From TrEMBL, chain B:
Source organism: Marinomonas pontica
Lineage of origin: Bacteria, Pseudomonadati, Pseudomonadota, Gammaproteobacteria, Oceanospirillales
Annotated Pfam families: HATPase_c (PF02518)
Cited Gene3D superfamilies: Histidine kinase-like ATPase, C-terminal domain (3.30.565.10)
Signal peptide range: none
InterPro entries: HATPase_C_sf, HATPase_dom, His_kinase_dom
PROSITE patterns: HIS_KIN
Histidine kinase domain span: 12-221
Protein name: Histidine kinase
Lineage: superkingdom: Bacteria
Residues spanning the membrane: none
One Gene Ontology molecular-function label: kinase activity
Length: 405, 229
């Protein structure tokens, strides 16, 4: 293994405990890093990652009350805040490692278990950086979204470094899926499974079958993964997707509820459960998931209007069966406030928020307030800053306001 | 209040204590940095450090043991290059060997790969090596090979060797409870491929004359692979 020159690499250290942070920073300095940025929590890290690029990210799994290291990784990889050329090393404890290893889709480049010595950290980082160097052309192509070049580059790397066959096969398989070459992807994942029982290959097999429309076979793969390890939570997400396509919404809902029991902090999963529950007219479950999503969205890459508007919608649907409880009304107001603060410049968002608000006041028999809101809405429509109510909405409001001048 | 299971309480207590060992190790590291490598106390500090590391590794072992015994461990197998895996083990344990003036080496075919749970086998190898530290005169070796669709990892030393009785489990951890051996056995047993289960063997070391602990881990055969597709 070649000695790495760390002096030109930019590092980001994410650790909430002061003692460990000081120690790890010292270790990094001692073996040559000259540029080390520090974040004490995931939210700060996201801000830094939005504005700078780093070569090495050393993140603790446990980051206090906010997001954990795995969620951070999933978010920044999903939203491409960190390039594939960057190395993400997760620092774990014995209790958290299963969550990290169970995340088949977004795995860190490596993990290291606490406590570790400087020598062990240096060795681990050197190895990881060496691997990144060998995969450089592959990762550059992936970052550009040029999957054909990524496949070609991975084939070259595989020949030169047999120990990277697994990594390269995985990249090729996933790139084939991106290129919609499902049959080729499937045969590659099957080929891998013939010689090695890798969870990612079984996962890829399931995805290939799903995308080819062979739902039964896809379900088999995902169920096998769930059986192999209860921490493979993304297998549950995909099983739920299959159940939605098959129209088995109740089953999809219970699959997701089980997944959330194992891994509650994934915002996309909460949103999906909310959506399915609304479709099932289960507004209580929908409200619970969207409320959690609203909580998780703060400082997140998924901090979009949808999260908040869906929460309002779920509360409005609860109010279809009677006035909201004081606690629910508080939740409604607090989410509405966030929409006013951040997302009120969009005409469609305004229309959606107004309509939910009117529903909630009407359910509370507060026709006066409901009417005022409707008038405010109409004047915004006039000035062009809000989308108009639908004919159906106007008609039902007119009927509800009927008695009032 | 629901009555809690005592083993669960102990497991979380071990976890708490393990975290404290981690903190102690960090503090010791900063002490080491302050006093510099020429200081007369450096040797003592290294001894304390190695003991703390061993304590930490033992607690990791106990935590896994608890999980294995209470069915709460999800095996996470992957394919590893043995050359890299054993190199990592020797690297981690080398300072302890050095502190005891013992030689620690590994050998295996450079292209040998195996399928196993890395964390469990790391704990098994370190448990066996720590044990060998107590008996070895000068040398400990770790080796790996594949035979009859089993991956075989052997930890051998040049000490007195296992006594030739059936109840010598206790001897494995001198005066201890044989927990280490039990742990190695449960870890090997947890590796199952189509009804072929992993196991361990205590033998005499042919190469070094002392004890040899051999761990057998089932690997997929061509027939198993047909089932998988």
């Amino acid at each position: 293994m070649a000695q790495q020159d760390f002096s030109k690499k930019k590092a980001l250290l994410i650790e909430d405990m002061a003692e460990a942070r000081i120690m790890q920073r010292k270790m990094l300095t001692d073996f040559g890093f000259t540029s080390i940025d520090i974040a004490m929590k995931a939210e700060t890290a996201i801000e830094l990652l939005k504005n700078q690029t780093f070569d090495v990210i050393l993140s603790d799994y446990n980051l206090g009350n906010g997001k954990d290291g795995q969620q951070l990784l999933e978010e920044v990889r999903h939203s491409k805040l960190i390039p594939n050329t960057a190395t993400y090393l997760m620092v774990t404890a014995e209790t958290s490692i299963e969550m990290v290893m169970g995340a088949i889709e977004y795995q860190p480049d490596g993990y290291i278990t606490k406590p570790f010595s400087q020598a062990v950290l240096q060795r681990r980082l050197s190895k990881l950086l060496e691997t990144k160097e060998r995969l450089y052309n592959v990762n550059i192509a992936l970052d550009k979204g040029d999957f054909e070049s990524a496949i070609a580059a991975a084939k070259i790397v595989m020949k030169k470094y047999p120990s990277l066959i697994g990594k390269c096969e995985r990249i090729i398989g996933e790139s084939l899926l991106e290129l919609k070459e499902y049959k080729k992807a499937l045969s590659l994942f099957n080929k891998t499974l013939k010689s090695r029982k890798m969870p990612w290959a079984l996962f890829g097999k399931g995805k290939s079958y799903f995308l080819m429309g062979e739902l039964e076979k896809a379900e088999q793969s995902f169920r096998q993964l769930m059986l192999d390890n209860r921490f493979f939570v993304s297998a549950y997400d995909w099983l739920a997707k299959i159940q939605v396509v098959e129209g088995k919404l109740e089953e999809a809902q219970s699959t997701l509820i089980e997944a959330i029991g194992r891994s509650p902090k994934n915002i996309l999963r909460q949103m999906e459960l909310g959506k399915i529950s609304l479709d099932l007219n289960d507004s209580m479950t929908a409200e619970m998931s969207y409320r959690r999503a609203v909580f998780l969205a703060k400082y997140s890459c998924y901090n979009t209007a949808d999260v908040y508007l869906n929460h309002l919608e779920s509360l409005a649907r609860i109010s279809d069966n009677g006035p909201l409880l004081p606690r629910q009304k508080d939740n409604f107001d607090s989410t509405l406030k966030k929409i006013h603060e951040s997302f009120f410049d969009n005409p469609d968002n305004k229309a959606k928020a107004y309509s939910c608000e009117i529903d909630v006041y009407l359910a509370d028999k507060d026709t006066l307030t409901a009417k005022q809101i409707f008038e405010a809405w109409l004047s915004e429509v006039k000035s062009g800053s809000s989308t108009a109510p639908t004919k159906q909405q106007s008609a039902s409001y007119a009927a509800a306001f009927g008695g009032i001048q | 209040m629901k009555k809690l299971d005592i083993s669960t309480i102990l497991a979380s207590a071990i976890h708490e204590s393990k975290n404290q060992v981690g903190t102690l190790l960090y503090q010791l590291q900063s002490l080491k940095d302050v006093i510099g490598s020429k200081d007369a106390n450096q040797k003592k500090i290294i001894l304390i450090e190695e003991s703390l590391k061993k304590l930490n590794d033992e607690w990791v072992e106990y935590l896994y043991l608890y999980r294995l015994a209470s069915d709460g461990y999800d095996l996470h197998v992957d394919t590893f290059l043995l050359d890299e895996f054993l190199d990592d083990q020797v690297f981690a344990l080398h300072p302890s060997a050095l502190a005891k003036n013992l030689q620690l080496e590994y050998s295996c075919d450079a292209s040998l790969t195996g399928i196993f749970d890395e964390r469990l086998m790391t704990a098994v190898v370190s448990t066996a090596v720590y044990n060998a530290f107590r008996f070895a005169k000068s040398k400990i070796t770790i080796s790996a090979k594949k035979e009859n669709e089993f991956l075989i990892i052997a930890i051998e030393d040049d000490g007195q060797g296992f006594k030739n009785t059936e109840e010598d489990g206790d001897e494995f951890l001198e005066g201890n409870t044989g927990l280490g051996l039990y742990f190695a056995e449960l870890s090997a047993n947890a590796h199952v491929i189509n009804e072929r289960t992993g196991f361990i063997k205590k033998e005499s070391s042919l190469a070094l004359g002392g004890a040899s602990l051999t761990v057998f881990l089932p690997q997929p055969s061509n027939i198993d692979l047909l089932y998988n597709v």
